[in-house]
Design a protein that fits this description.
- The protein is an alpha/beta fold and 286 residues long.
- The chain folds into two domains: 124 residues, 3-Layer(aba) Sandwich (Oxidized Rhodanese, domain 1), CATH 3.40.250.10; 123 residues, Oxidized Rhodanese, domain 1.
- The protein is built from ten helices and twelve strands.
- The strands form three sheets. A five-stranded parallel β-sheet has the order 1-5-4-2-3. Strands 6-12-11-7-8 form a five-stranded parallel β-sheet.
- β4, α4 and β5 form a beta-alpha-beta unit.
- The protein is globular and about 55 Å long.
Length: 286
């Protein structure tokens, strides 16, 4: 079973296995339909397409962030329609770095399906290895029954973070809140996606791009050293990961798992939900 990463060569050896489902998660926040168009133009053979907005998120509301979690029953039905059953090995990929594929990786684990891995290096690694793309119309998948249930233990929400902030737990380092956005956005600079710039007071910055070298995940030992430095002695299993909208935070959760530092949770609403209420405090600077 693959439950964190899979290489292009390992995936190529398993293509055609009826117990394998490959999901293409390519997406561009600035061009929401780019991924679906790229998928139609060429994809890893037998892959289905998972759209971040339509499949891996629920509609935005007045109190939510930009990518609210999907409703679990609807998400489970979508997984079943893609052919995912209890014994299915799932592989998710995107254009390369894994930011969107990691969202699908986390969603499956949230519903209890752990046989899911991200293609290390994504489609770029697949093509660099010389493997072909499928361009003919994709065949309809054979639906299966997906019976997953959401695990609330994997989540943190805004009220919890507000309580921790009021109690001084972030300031004292008792509640490690790890923000995956780039250092400039964390500091309140060059904000292009959200109407308010900055970060939650007391949060720690660990850009998801620090998990990568040449578009692929760093080795487990290096990831572990980097996260331990960010945590500064705080237990990894007490960490909560966030970002702008709960997507690239999943990249940090995957990297933590690779590093042998599992147990962290996702703040799914993340920064874009935090700033919906102007009364919530905001910090700026590194």
């Amino acid at each position: 079973m693959f439950d964190t990463l899979i290489s292009a060569r390992e995936l190529a050896q398993r293509l055609g296995d009826p117990a394998l489902v490959v999901l293409d998660c390519r997406f561009d926040l600035a061009r929401p339909e780019w991924g679906a168009e790229a998928y139609a133009a060429g994809r890893i053979p037998h892959a289905r397409y998972a759209h971040l907005d339509r499949d891996l998120s629920s509609p935005v509301s007045a109190t939510s962030g930009r990518h609210p979690l999907p409703e679990p029953v609807a998400l489970g039905a979508r997984f079943g329609a893609w052919g995912i059953g209890p014994d299915t090995q799932v592989v998710a990929y995107d254009q390369g770095p894994g930011a969107f594929a990691a969202r699908l990786w986390w969603l499956l684990r949230w519903l209890g399906h752990t046989a899911v891995a991200v293609l290390d290096g994504g489609l770029a690694a697949w093509q660099a290895a010389g493997f072909a793309l499928e361009t003919a119309a994709a065949a309809a998948p054979s639906a299966r029954h997906f019976a997953g249930r959401p695990d609330a233990r994997l989540l943190a929400d805004t009220p919890e973070i507000e309580r921790a902030l009021r109690a001084g737990a972030l300031e004292r380092g008792e509640y490690p809140l790890i923000d995956a956005r780039g250092a400039d956005r964390f500091a309140g600079q060059n904000e292009t996606l959200d109407p308010v710039a900055g970060h939650i007071p007391g949060a720690l910055n660990h850009p998801f791009t620090d998990n990568l070298a040449d578009g692929r995940f760093l080795d487990a030992a290096t990831l572990r050293a980097r996260f331990l430095r960010t945590l500064g002695g705080r237990p990894a299993e007490r960490a909560v990961c966030m970002c702008g909208s709960g997507v690239t935070a999943c990249h940090n959760l995957l990297a933590l798992e690779i590093a042998g530092l599992g147990g962290a949770r996702l703040y799914a609403g993340s920064w874009s939900e935090w700033i919906v209420d102007p009364a919530r405090p905001v910090s700026r600077g590194p």
